[in-house]
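Progress against Task 2.4 (sequence-to-structure conversion) is shown through the following example record, which the project officer requested during the mid-term review.
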Amino acid sequence: MSIRNSVQGYGWLSIALHWLVAFSVFTLFGLGLFMVDLNYYSSWYQTAPMIHKSIGILLFATMLFRLLWRSLNQKPNSPEGHKKWEKQGAKLGHFLLYLVLFVLMISGYLISTADGRPISVFDWFDVPATITSINQQEELAGDIHEILAWTLIALVAGHALAALKHHFIDKDSTLVRMLKPTK
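Structure tokens generated for the chain above:
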């Protein structure tokens, strides 16, 4: 198993990063849904947001590393038989996934730091509040965050359905390449 990508497929680090991000996105989405119904007297009232923010900051760092790793590795060729529109759709879909995820995380940062307090990441380190002067920052960023969270889930569903279509209908290696590292 190779750490690096090849023209035939992805290396184990790219695969691990893909699934770590996927798991984190679903965890954050579920935790976000859980948090909106918490009240002040809930034992999770402060714990859930702290976990959500901490994972979000770590995911941001992971995504920055993922972009760096992606830029340092070759991109595997598309499996034979992919049509031009499928390749363009995949490129657009991946761009939108990255864009929405980054804007979603930035909006989360803006919500959390609107009052000028830093974000404590599992009490390991703090991320300072650097932007606090946007008018109605918490509300505006909160609305954007909610809309983009649902948008991201829709994009992820489309991404997963496309992978399943390639696996079960087209019977190509698209899905398998993200499960099994190249040699």
